[in-house]
Structure formats: C-alpha cells, structure tokens
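Deliverable D4.2, example record:
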Amino acid sequence: MQQVETEVIMLEAMHEVELRPGLVLPPGLYSGTKTYTHLVGSGQNRTPSQYKIKLMAHQLADMGAEVPPNLISETIDVTKFVRSGQLIVG
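Output generated by the structure prediction step:
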C-alpha cells in the first residue's frame, strides 16, 4: 500500500533562477509544495520528495513569460532547482 503526502512549504531563491528559457524567478520567498509517497513493504520508507511552485499569471508576466489570455496560474516542478541548491526549502 502506498500513501501520497503533500505539505505546503516555503522556497527561497537567493539569486535569480532560470526555470526555463524566458522565465526567470527573481530572488525572494515563494509558497510551494513538497510531495512524496510512503512505501510499504519496501526497503525504503518513502520516495524522494518532489517540489512544485504555483505562479499566478501576473507573476509569470512580470518574470517575462508569454502568458495566454485565459491562463490563471501555472504549477511548475522545481525539484531539480531544490536538489541543486538554487532554491532552498525553509
């Protein structure tokens, strides 16, 4: 049996982080989520954590992204930036 757990966290960018070409996250604090799965009957207790942030359309536009007129928000997987130390979990 597996149980998925998600918790709300704060992520801090100490410097600009290019999330993708044309989308640069400025330094600051961002609300995000940390998700992992508890594994039962395995040598591991849980899967590695995955991290995501949700940015509103106006935030994306302020960061230089092209925003479709009907977009309200976008959830972005930032796991690789947390693992590389570019985003810090606080």
